[in-house]
Automatic annotation (TrEMBL), chain A:
Family: Belongs to the TMEM147 family.
UniProt-listed Pfam families: DUF2053 (PF09767)
Keyword Transmembrane helix: yes
Source superkingdom: Eukaryota
Subcellular location: Cell membrane; Endoplasmic reticulum membrane
Transmembrane regions listed in the UniProt entry: 39-59, 71-92, 104-124, 144-161, 168-190, 196-220
Protein name in UniProt: BOS complex subunit TMEM147
Sorted UniProt keywords: Cell membrane, Endoplasmic reticulum, Membrane, Transmembrane, Transmembrane helix
Source organism of the structure: Hibiscus sabdariffa (roselle)
Primary site of residence: membrane
Membrane disposition: Multi-pass membrane protein
InterPro entries: TMEM147
Automatic annotation (TrEMBL), chain B:
Organism: Hibiscus sabdariffa (roselle)
Record InterPro entries: EF_Hand_1_Ca_BS, Nicalin
Membrane topology note: Single-pass membrane protein
Assigned keywords, A-Z: Endoplasmic reticulum, Glycoprotein, Membrane, Signal, Transmembrane, Transmembrane helix
Localisation: Endoplasmic reticulum membrane
UniProt-listed SUPFAM superfamilies: Zn-dependent exopeptidases (SSF53187)
Stated name of the protein: Nicalin
Transmembrane regions listed in the UniProt entry: 517-536
Recorded superkingdom: Eukaryota
Matching Pfam families: Nicastrin (PF05450)
Family as reported in the entry's similarity comment: Belongs to the nicastrin family.
Length: 228, 559
């Protein structure tokens, strides 16, 4: 019964990635290599972030919200963005259209994030006899993270890969990218500073991820029109 | 070639590390529980081959309270019964009719736990004492085919129980399909205790030898049995039975060692102090101890006073004898005690119980002396001899059941009576152990030993040969006596005991199988919907339809 629960939470956490890959044209164009490379880049970025956090951050006793520490964490979070830039621009991809490139990179990024952050707690915790809602909420969070990663990848590809963008949209693109990139800091502020409970935070994440996905979709199609 | 070999080696080592990691991860204990409680198991023993007590230790069942729907199948359920809701007839029915039951968990009020030592109202004490005595009597003498545990109530377990009661009231007993709480005790099967030992400790205080031969000095023996037996061996501290006796013996030994340290005040009697084990088992230890005596020593014993439960009496103590009261020696002892009792403003009565040699049951310790023709008497607050395994350290016999004043008065009674006999002051109104003197009874000594005894369970089969408590008793007696001897014996063959007396209970809140199935259904449909949504938005609706229409189109092609 408990392995059953583990199986359920695992398909909730990792299923959407597989479904995304197989449902969209990504599988037809065989972009698995790109996703794997993006996952490896995420791994490298995570290690760099870990080292920076260990060096610069002080461990606080209480679980409250310290603005300076959070600011530092946000700055270190931008290393994420740098990693994404590297994955999008520097890695050699086979000849795939930009449309699919950002999706593949976003997918690989989100998959690596889920595996690194959620697989170990899931394996340790969900197999026990004790039942908690935590792992189901974690799975929903993984879904929201997938959507956010893909939108971030879309906005990033707009910023760095597309040369001719309508002038008016550029600040909006940058603003949206900024919001999505700082999403981790926002959620941690909500959890620690405002003391929101986990279900509420997950609901907020799901909502914002859908909103940001919609906005980035609109921006992407808007930028696509002139060149098409 | 070398490079290839190296790479395969590397791969192999990576594989082995990964495999090791997986094995390690799989073995990590899964132990988060809603609550974890210390529980104490019912004793398990065989007497002459017949099994008694709870025969199992491991537990892994759902929990239910007493308000379960009638007619429910309890063979895979543990009943949690707090003491205040205990219905003895119900439990007796289940046990005697051998109805299938997954387990029993009795919740004792927190005041009884030795960490707490709270105070209870007097009439509540009496009620609880009676209830616990009846429950213990039922459990100890029955053969129960399921695990039976005792636990102390605390906030965690109270909330869990309230939750369980709510669920039961709604008419759904907890099973695999309806969720609820699961009680897990992961212990191994209980094993027999191999050759349980009983350890007798004796201390010898030599009297003043006259210029003649030394060995002819008469001896007076003071004996108390120190081990206990109760329904829950890990909780069997026996503060009154027989912690009070041990404490009194140690204090008397201390007082007389003070007197005997100075040759001018040393009496013309040897004093033999005996801390015997094996008390609950028909005073088996005392018998073996006496049998080990030299014939001359046994004959030199004038009389022996056995102390048994002198910690919770108000005004009346009893001297139990097996020789008829008309016997000169008995009369002398009784008169001595009565005189001192009068001065101390308490009553002492004499009770005579004949020994039946054919009956193996030995109810008082003095009977073992009497069977070997040594004059002996037992001083006790109990008017009637206890039954087998009763009154030897039951669940309510904790620190708050015994009071020091009673013990202090008992010590004064025995010490004064002995001293008057030794120094020949019978009938004279002389207070040797007066208060405020050097020889006063020390309440702090009594209190500290009583506190220690009330936290030490002392069931003999579970005390090893070099148990720290036994060593402590030996050391204490050595401080007061000239010579201390320790005798190790094996417990009488008709008893066999099983270990596993204490465990940790994990209470898990579990979800039912139906919940998991439902969740699987929901997730499956979510993923299918997601799949269709993505196919439609990225490739178009036609693509989705074509996914389902492929087989027919192939048929068309081949045809």
């Amino acid at each position: 019964m408990t392995m059953f629960h583990f199986f359920n939470c695992a398909i909730l956490t990792f299923g959407p990635h597989a479904v995304y890959y197989s449902a969209t044209p990504l599988s037809e164009y065989d972009t698995l290599g790109t996703s794997v490379k993006a996952a490896l880049v995420y791994l490298g970025t995570a290690l760099v972030k870990l080292v920076c956090l260990a060096t610069f951050l002080q461990v606080s006793e209480n679980d409250g919200f310290d603005p300076y520490q959070e600011l530092l964490k946000a700055l270190i979070g931008f290393i994420d963005v740098a990693g994404l830039y590297f994955a999008l621009t520097q890695l050699t991809h086979r000849n795939i259209s930009q449309n699919h490139k950002f999706q593949a990179v976003g997918l690989g990024w989100a998959f690596a994030d889920s595996v690194l952050h959620r697989l170990a707690p899931l394996w340790m915790g969900a197999r026990g006899l004790e039942f908690t809602w935590e792992y189901i909420l974690q799975g929903l969070e993984a879904n929201a993270n997938l959507v956010l990663s893909i939108s971030l990848a879309a906005l990033a590809s707009l910023i760095w890969l597309r040369k001719n963008k309508p002038k008016t949209l550029i600040p909006i693109i940058y603003a949206c990218a900024g919001i999505v990139a700082t999403m981790p800091s926002i959620t941690s502020y909500l959890r620690r500073g405002l003391g929101w409970y986990f279900p509420k935070v997950v609901g907020f994440e799901l909502f914002t991820s859908l909103v940001m996905a919609f906005i980035s979709w609109q921006l992407f199609s808007a930028c696509q029109r002139p060149s098409a | 070639m070398a490079a290839l070999k190296k790479s395969t080696e590397l791969l192999e080592s990576v594989y082995s590390v990964v495999a090791l990691l997986f094995i390690l991860l799989a073995c990590v204990g899964l132990c988060d529980a809603a609550a974890a409680v210390d529980v104490y198991r019912l004793i398990q023993y065989d007497m002459s081959g017949s099994p008694f007590g709870s025969r199992f230790a491991a537990l892994n069942h759902h929990a239910a309270s007493l308000s379960f729907p009638p007619g429910a199948d309890l063979s895979r359920t543990v009943l949690i019964i707090p003491l205040r809701e205990l219905n003895i007839t119900f439990v007796r029915e289940y046990i005697t009719q051998k109805k299938p039951l997954g387990g029993l968990l009795f919740l004792l009020p927190e005041v009884l736990s030795f960490k707490h030592g709270g105070n209870m109202q007097v009439h509540e004490k009496e009620k609880m004492k009676k209830l616990l005595a009846e429950l213990e009597r039922l459990l100890v003498h029955s053969n129960i085919a399921c695990p039976v545990y005792f636990a102390f109530e605390n906030d965690d377990i109270d909330t869990v129980l309230a939750d369980i009661k709510k669920n039961d009231a709604m008419g759904q007993p907890a099973t695999a399909t309806t969720g609820g709480y699961k009680l897990v005790i992961p212990t191994a099967e209980p094993k027999k205790v191999v050759s349980p030992t009983i350890t007798n400790i004796q201390g010898w205080l030599s009297g003043l030898k006259a210029d003649g031969d030394a060995n002819q000095l008469p001896t007076i023996a003071i004996v108390a049995s120190y081990d206990t037996f109760g329904a829950a061996p890990a909780l069997s501290v026996g503060s009154d039975s027989n912690g009070s006796g041990i404490v009194a013996l140690l204090e008397i030994a201390r007082l007389f060692s003070l007197l005997y340290s100075n040759p001018k005040t040393r009496g013309r009697y040897n004093l033999l102090f005996g801390l015997t084990s094996g008390g609950p088992y028909n005073y088996n230890g005392t018998q073996k101890w006496l049998r080990s005596f030299d014939q001359r020593l046994r004959e030199s014993i004038d009389y022996a006073i056995c102390l048994n439960s002198i910690g919770s009496w108000d005004n009346e103590l009893w001297i139990h004898v097996s020789k008829p009261p008309e016997n000169a020696y008995i009369k002398q002892i009784f008169e001595g005690f009565s005189n001192v009792a009068e001065e101390l403003d308490l009553k002492v009565g004499l009770k005579h119980k004949k020994i039946n040699i054919s009956n193996p049951r030995v109810a008082w310790e003095h009977e073992q002396f009497s069977r070997l023709r040594v004059t002996a008497a037992t001083l006790s607050e109990l008017p009637v001899a206890p039954e087998l395994f009763e009154g030897t350290g039951s669940l309510f016999d904790g620190r708050q059941y015994v009071n020091e004043t009673a013990i202090i008065r008992g010590v004064k009674l025995v010490a004064e009576s002995l001293a008057r006999h030794i120094y020949g002051h019978q009938g004279k109104n002389v207070q040797i152990f007066a208060d405020e003197s050097i020889l006063a009874v020390n309440p702090a000594y009594i209190r500290s030993w009583l506190d220690l005894l009330s936290q030490t369970p002392r069931v003999a089969p579970f005390l090893s040969k070099n148990d720290p408590f036994v060593m402590a008793l030996k050391k204490e007696l050595a401080d007061h006596a000239d010579e201390v001897n320790v005798q190790h014996e094996n417990l009488e063959g008709i008893f066999t005991f099983y270990d596993s007396t204490k465990a940790r209970l994990n209470i898990h809140q579990v979800a039912s199988v139906t919940f998991d199935l439902l969740l699987l259904l929901v997730l499956g449909s979510y993923l299918i919907v997601l799949f269709c949504f993505l196919v439609i938005t990225t490739r178009g609706v036609d693509e989705l339809i074509s996914l389902f229409r492929r087989p027919p189109s192939r048929k068309v092609k081949t045809a």
